[in-house]
Write a structure and sequence with these properties.
Elements: E1 3-8, H1 21-32, E2 36-41, H2 49-70, E3 76-80, H3 85-96, E4 100-104, H4 107-110, H5 117-129, E5 132-135, H6 138-146, E6 155-157, H7 172-179, E7 186-191, H8 200-211, E8 217-222, H9 228-241, E9 246-249, H10 254-263, E10 266-269, H11 278-285, E11 289-293, H12 298-301, E12 308-310, H13 315-327, H14 332-344, H15 347-361
Parallel strand pairs: 1-2, 1-3, 3-4, 4-5, 5-6, 7-8, 7-10, 8-9, 10-11, 11-12
Helix pairs in contact: 2-3, 3-5, 7-10, 8-9, 8-13
Length: 367
């Protein structure tokens, strides 16, 4: 049995059930397909700077001690996010000769690596020393090759995948009744952290425009509100504009989110940047339409009419895209395109590709 050690700086806990849920989903997928997986992860967002440093140091030491003790039985390590997570895998290779793969998700290159020249240098070494780099989107793959000098044959594009047993079309009326969502209204949902970079302010402006001609429209904003300063600005704007039909919901479980995806007319993802845009894939798999910004991996995911793409930071264009999605029915060719996208990113395909990567790059079957 192949023994894989997964490192992640994000992983769910009872207190934070959606924190890095996409990593847990992939881990469970691997376990269900016969892999021996050990997870060493951080289970909650940091608060103060001192607490974050202490937490990362403790996690790093625990990880390296585990690698030292189990080095003979570990086939490969898999780091989610290049820095700081990939440093553990890099040290595991250097000290214990354990090969590793690293998945880049977007924020590690778009934000973390740009914090300082030192972090950029570490990121470059982590990526170049990896047996395989997995990029969740095409743009990220290009960045890994062009900016960080990684050989193209060592970079593979692969999303975190969608579980089509969870995210699937359900009866809209039934799930709306379960969620207490009005049956006769048209519903938009936004799923993600309530932060500026996700385009929430532009979404409010677009929604306000749409309400002028669509008085049966509702908007549900589902996600973490940990940025209290920004959330305060958002709610203040809603109140000052007198816009109705907007509700906030805390993060929900995957099973509950699947119901919301089936209950909605349109998922809207107005981000300034996205590595891949997994929620868009989950919405498509649930039968919802998607309107998203033309950034990161989204233009590749939603190409050929699978969704509606608009430019970021443009409320007027976002409103037009939403209006288009609300009015137009999905054509047969669009439906076929969407089904191809879902199949390409299905959990069955993803686990097969991961298995191939581990077998090619691991140091042999664990005893």
């Amino acid at each position: 049995m192949t023994k894989v050690v997964v490192f992640s700086n994000m992983y769910p806990s009872e207190q934070h059930p959606t924190y890095g849920i996409f990593v847990k989903n992939q881990v469970e997928l691997l376990k269900n397909n016969g892999f021996d997986v050990k997870v060493i992860a951080i289970h909650e967002p940091g608060k103060g700077k001192f607490e974050k440093i202490t937490k990362y140091l403790s996690w790093g030491m625990h990880s390296l001690i585990y690698l030292m003790k189990k080095k003979k039985s570990i086939s490969i390590t898999h780091a989610h996010y290049a820095f700081p997570t990939g440093m553990i895998s890099l040290l595991g290779k250097k000290f214990f000769n354990i090969p590793y793969v690293v998945t880049v998700h977007g924020g590690d290159l778009d934000k973390m690596a740009k914090k300082s020249a030192r972090i950029a240098k570490y990121t470059k070494r982590i990526l170049q020393e990896a047996s395989q780099v997995i990029a969740v989107g095409e743009k990220l793959r290009n960045d890994v090759i062009e900016v960080y000098g990684v050989s193209p044959q060592n970079v593979e594009v692969m999303s975190m995948g969608v579980d089509t047993n969870v995210f699937k079309p359900m009866g809209r009326e039934d799930v709306r009744l379960l969620l207490n969502v009005p049956l006769n209204e048209r519903v938009l949902i936004y799923v993600g952290n309530v932060i500026e970079a996700k385009g929430v302010m532009e979404l409010l402006d677009a929604y306000e425009r749409l309400r002028e001609t669509h008085d049966d429209l509702l908007l549900y904003i589902i996600g973490s509100q940990k940025d209290q300063r920004f959330v305060g600005l958002v709610k203040e704007k809603i109140e000052s504009k007198g816009v109705s039909g907007i509700e906030f919901r805390e993060p929900v479980s995957q099973l509950e989110l699947a119901k919301w995806m089936s209950a909605t007319d349109v998922l809207v993802l107005p981000s300034y940047h996205e590595g891949f845009g997994l929620v868009a894939l989950e919405a498509l798999s649930s039968g919802a339409k998607v309107v998203a910004t033309n950034v990161g991996g989204l233009p590749y995911l939603l190409k050929d009419g699978a969704g509606v793409l608009v430019e970021p930071r443009d409320p007027e264009m976002l409103a037009e895209g939403l209006a288009q999605a609300l009015v137009n029915e999905v054509s047969r060719s669009q439906h076929e395109t969407i089904q191809q996208v879902i199949q390409q990113h299905s959990s069955e395909v993803i686990v097969k590709r991961l298995s191939d990567i581990y077998q090619r790059n691991g140091k042999g079957t664990a005893k």
